[in-house]
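Here is one record:
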Amino acid sequence: MLKLFTAFVLILTLVVGALHPSNTIPRDERIEGNVVTITDDIRIDGEVFGDVTSWTGNILISGHVRGDVVSYTGNVTVLPGAHVDGSTMSLNGVIDVDPTALGGSVIGGGPGGKLVSRIVGVFAPVPYAPAGAANLGRWLFGMALAVATLMFCLLLIGAWPNRTAAVSMALIKHPGRAVVLGVLVGTALTTLL
């Protein structure tokens, strides 16, 4: 029953994420905390008391971000009149920043970033796509991620069958420890991201 509930929650999360429009913080809104997406674009017109992060989406700042702005493969644009207190980073995207808007450093955004961003962007919706195509892009990204995770797990099971069986038995014998370990690892991974 717990497995069915967990699967239902994961599927519901994917569906809600696919149908969710791009994240826009209006000019008169203040967010206490971080703004984080995987494939959605982010637009900050208001104020964010935290970090703004997107894995493959583009980020546009015209308001005030009191933390860092990070897009791993998307583009980051900080308009004149905006302000970012922390660092602005894009590993593979293009960074277009008004110099008067920064309080921290600029990391990444080299000339090769645009090419790599477009290659990785195959899994993410493009900003000029109609809504139907954007949803399709999110579904394709989710499905590709699910298939890659499944293949990785099957590879581990095939490579170390005895180890996998031993771990499975340990999880069955000590479910409380498994939950605590899962929460700790999940928290650590979320913190790293």
Summary: The chain has five helices and 14 strands. Helices lie at 2-19, 113-120, 131-159, 161-173, 175-192. The CA atoms of residues 157 and 165 lie 9 Å apart.
